[in-house]
Amino acid sequence: MGKTTFLTELALDWCDAVSVHNPDHKPTFSDVDTLKKFQFLFQISLRDATDQREVIEMIKTQIIHMIYTDAKREEIVKLLPQIMERESCIVTLDGLNEWVDRLNKCVIPFLAQCHIKCVSVITSRPWKMADERIKDSEINSLIEIEGIIDSEKLAKKIIHSLQTGNVKTHTEFMTYVNERQLSHFLTSPWRLTMLVNLWMNYKVSGSLCELNCILIDILFKNANARKGYFQKGGSFQCLSNTRFIQQQIDIFDALAKAAFYLTFSFNKSLLFTERELLNYISDVQLEFCLNAGVLTKRYMSYEADEDVQFSFVHETVQEFLAAYHIAKSNLDCITHFQIESKYNVLEMSEIIIFLCGLDCKKANQLLNMLADVKFLNDINHGLSMYVKHFLDSEDALAFQTDNNTKRYILKSNNTEMKHAARCFALSVLFQRMIIAGYKEAKASGEKDICLNCTDFTFDTHLNKCDSNALKTLLLSKKSDVRSLILESNVLKTSEILSVIQQSKKSLKRLKMRVTEEINKTLYHTSIQELNFIGTINVSSFSGIFPTLSQLTFLEIEGSTFSEDIDLPDTFQEIHLMNCTCTAVFLRRLLLRLSSLKPYVILLLYRVNLTDNNTLLFQPELLSIDMKDIFLVVRHGNSDLYNLLRCTSIEVFLLETAECASLVAEILPTLNKLTKLGLRVSYTGRCDLKLPASLQDVHLHKCECSSKWLCGFLITLSTLAHPVKCHLRDVILQPFEEACGDDNHLHLSDLRSEIVSRDLSNIGISVQNGSMELLEILRDTNIGNLDLGLAECASLASEILHTLHMLKDLYLRGTYTGQCNLKLPASIQYVSLIECKCSSEWLCSLLITLSSLPHPVECELRDVELQPYEEARGDEYHIHVSDLRSEIVSRDLSYVGIIVRNGSFELMEILRDTSIGNLYLSSADCASLASEILHTLNKLTTLYLNGTFTGRCNLRLPASLQCISLLVVECTHEWLCSLLITLSTLDHPVECELRDVVLQPLEEAHRGDSQIHVSELRSEIMSRDMFQFEILLDNVSEDVLEIFRDTSIGILYLETADCAQLASEILHTLNKLKKLYLGGNYTGRFDHRLPVSLQHICLQKVECSSEWLCSLLITLSSLDHYVDCELRDVVFQPSQEARGDDYNIHRSDLRSEILLRDLSNIKILVTNGSTELFEIFRDSSIRSLEVIDIDNGS
User: Fold this and answer.
1) pLDDT in tens, 613-636
2) What superkingdom heads the lineage (predicted)?
3) Letter string b/e over residues 334-357, b meaning 16 or more CB atoms within 10 A of that residue's CB
4) Rounded distance between C-alpha atoms, residue 681 and residue 911, angstroms
C-alpha cells in the first residue's frame, strides 16, 4: 500500500463506517470505529493544488466545485467554514512532497486555528521532512508506510487478475524472483505490480531501468506505435528488449527532456500545465503520450477548458526518464540543478539509482555535486557517534534494519543526541542508496562500476547480497577509504590488509577485530578513531598508538592492562569496556590524560581493578591535575572509586544507581568537581553529600521520588555559589508509590523546608518535565529557570508567578495564541532561544513585560515569527490589530530588547513602541531595524554589534542618548557617517566604542576611498560635536584619528593603551572640556593636553607617584582653572621602581611640584590614601576636596 492508496482506503473505510447501507463491509484498518466519530472527510490531492495555500480553498476547488453548480455551490461554500469550525472533520492531504507554497512561507497548507475539530492526515515522501520548519512538536502521530505487509498475497492477486486460468503460478514467479535476485522488488507495491506484469510477458534481468523501459514500451504499444528494435550492444542495454520505442525514439527523448526539466524546476512539482509541457514536446507528441497513458490529463475545475494539468503515469517513471535524459545528454545539464538543501541527494536517490544503470560516470558526477562537504561531514559525524556508542542502541538498530526509515536523517534538532542520530541514519541511507546503485549498474550490464563512497559499514544486519555488493565497491575504492566498520567477517585478512595499506593517508575510522598481522599494518596510518572488537594483547598492540599521530579516540574491550599505553598528544577520548587493569596502570593513564588538552573523556565500563591496595597510590594521584578529564563510569566498583578519593577530577558522570551508591562516600572529597551527571533512579530521602566546588548538575533520564528531589534541591541550596541543575527527562514517582501518613508528613516537611530555603543561587533547567515535577518548585525562590519546550512552559505557567525571587527566564519551543504566562514581579530578564511564535503571542508577552514596575530585558535569539498569512481570518486580524494598538499605547521604556538573528516581521512588532533600549547583534539585524528605528520615540540606548560597510544609513530617533558599538568591525566611511548622524541630534549624546576595528581601505579603490573619507573627515570637523561624550576602550590608532581636530566636548579613555594612542590627537581637540582616564600608568605623564581642558578625572587608576606628579605639573601649565578628580586612585608601591636614579628623579619631581604654581588646580579626592595625599604636601593647589571623610582626617 502506497501513500495515495493508504488515504483512499481510509476514505473508503470512513464512507462505510458512517453508512448504514453496508453492514457487511470489511474495513482495511482495524480501528475503523474511530472513524465513526467524524462527521465529514475531505480528501485533497496536493499535486492538484500547486497554486493554492489554504486547505479551505483546496476543498472548494477539488470537491465543492466538482459536485455543485451555481447557487448551490455558493451556498455550500458559505457553509463550509461553519462545518470546519463546529463539526469533527478529517482532512486528508496527499503528497506534501508534490506541493510548494508559492510564497515559500508555509511548509504545509494552512488550516485556520479556529478549525480545532479538524484532524489533518498528511502523506509525503520522507525527504520532504528535511524542511526544518516541520516541527516534531506539531506532529501528533507519525506513521511510516514500510511497504507490503503480505507480498505473497498481493502477488497472487495480481497473477490471478492477469490470466483466465492458472497457467502461471505464484511458485513459478517466486522461483523467477529468487534466481535473478529480485527480492528487493517485493517491498514496493508499484515495483511488485510492474514485476508481475512484466514476468507474465517478458524476460527481465532485474534492472529497474529495464522494467521502466518495458513498461513504457507496453504503453507505447497501446497507442498503436510502430514496431522497431534497437541494435544489440547499443548505448543503453535497458532498451534492447523493447519493441515499440525505437521507432518513437524522438517522443521518448522529448519525454525524458520534459521529465528532467520539470523535475528540476525551481518550483518542483509532479503536476504541470500544457504550456510547460509544450516547451519540450510537440502537440502531436503530447497527443500520442496521452493516448499511450504515459502522461495523464486532468481537469482542475468544473469548466472543461480551464486548469488542465498533466502528470506522468507514476512518479517513478518521471524519475527514470529524468535520469535517462542526464545519461543521454552530451551537455553538462547536471550543473543546472536547483540545489535546495544538503539533503537533495536523498531526494534524488531514485534518479541516482536509475542513472547508475544508465551511465555510472554521470551518476558519480551527480553524486559529487549533490553530496557536498556539509553532507559528507554529517555522515562522518554520524559514523563517529556510532563508533563511540553515543547513539541509543535501539535507534541504531532501527536505522540499520528498517528499509524505509528516513525520519531521523531528515529532521534537524537542537540536541546533540538527536543530531547524532540523524547524521548516523543519513550514513545508513546513503550507503543503502550506493548499494542499490551498484546492484542496478550490475543488472544493467554497466562496465567499470565505481561509485564515489568513502565510508563502508558492514554491520551484522546487512544481508548477503548487499554485503557482497558493498565489498565489491570497497575493493574497487580501497585507496580512498575514510571509514571501515567491520562488525561481520565479510572480508578476508588479505583484503583488509590491502585496504589499510592503500588507504593509509585517507583512513580515519576503523572498527574491527584486529589480529597481530593486521595490527602491524596500522603503524603510521592517519587513523583518528580506533575501535577494537574483542580481546587484544595490549602489550603487543600498545606500540602502535604513539605512531598514530592523528588518533583522537580509542576503544578496547575485554582486555587486561598492566603496562602503560603511550597515547599521542592528539588524543581526546578512551573507552575501556569490560577490562581488567591494575591501579598502577589506571594512575599512569590518568597522569597521561591530564597532560592532554583541551579535555579528555575517559569511559570506564565494568572495569575491574586487580590490586586492592589503592591507598599506596593516593599521594601520587592527588598530585595530578585532572581538571581536563571528563570521567564517565558505568558499573564501577568500590576499589575504583576509592582510587579517585580526594582527586582533582572536575567532570563526573554516573550512569547506574549502583555507581551512585558506591560513589556517595567519596563525592564530598572531590573538592575540584564542578560538573556531576546522574542517570539513575532514586527513592527515599536524598543523602548525597556534594562537594562545595560543584557548579553544574545534570539529572538525565532519572526516576526519583518527590522526597528525593526536594532533598536534593535543599542540598544544592547549601552551596555558597551559583549552581545549575538540569532536569532532562526526569520522571517523578507518584505519591502513591510512597504511601503512608508518615511519608506524606515527611514530604510536607520537606516542602516547607524547600520553600523556606534560599534557592536564589540555583538555576533550574527543565526539558520534558511533568506537572508534578514543576509543582516541586512552587513558592520556592530559585534564581533562574530554563524551560526547554513550549509544553514545559505551559505546565510551568501555573507556578511561575509563585517564584518570587526568579530573575532570569529562558524559553524554547513553539508558541501560538496569546501569551498567558503569569510572570513574577521579580523577573528581570526573559530570553527566547530558537523559538517559533505567532505575532499575537510575542505582542502579548511584551505587554506582560510592560506591566513590571522595573527595568527588564527581553532577548530574542533566533526567534522565527509566524507570518500573518498563517493565521488568516477577519477576527484574528482584528485581534492582532488590537494587540498592536495596545503595545504601542503601553509604556515600554523599562523594556530593553536584545535581537540576535531577527527578521523583518520581528522588527515590525517593535514599530512605534516606547522601548527604552535596543541591542542589535549583527549588521543584518541593524539593516532590518533601520526601517523602524526612527519610530522608537522613547529609545534612549542603542547597542550595535557586527560588521558594517558602506555609509551608515541608520535613521536614529530624536530620543537617543547613548549609542554603543560593542565588538564592531566597520569602514572609515561607516563610522564617519554615524558620527555625522549623531551630530544632528540637538541634545547631549554618548558614543561608546568598545573593541572597534576599522577595515583597511581596499587597494583597488584606495584613491577614491581616501578622497571620500577625506570629505567625510572635513564634514565631521565642521560639525558641532561639543555635546558628544566619546568613550574609547580597546580601539586602534586609526579609530582615534577619526576624532582629530573635532569639537567633541567629553572624552573617556578606559585604558592606558587607549590613552597612549590618543596622546597624538588630544591636543587637537580644541573644544574638549572633560577628560576621563582609567587603567595603569607608569613613567612620566607626557600627553599634550588641549588648552580648552577644564576637568580631568582619574577613575580606578593605578599609577606611579612620578606619573601623577608630572600630570599635575602639566595641568599647572594651563592658564585657567582646572579640576582634577581622583577616584579610587592607587599608587604603585615604591619598591616596584627601585634604584638611586629613580629616587633622585622622584625627589626632583617633588621639588618641581613645590616650585610650580598650582593655584589653578582644584583637587577632588574619593577614596584616597596617605601616599596620595603626601603628593600635595606643601604644594600650592587652589583647593582640596575630600569625599571620603575618613581620608580627610
Assistant:
1) 655 666 777 888 888 889 998 888
2) Eukaryota
3) beebeeeebbbbbbbbbbbbbbbb
4) 51
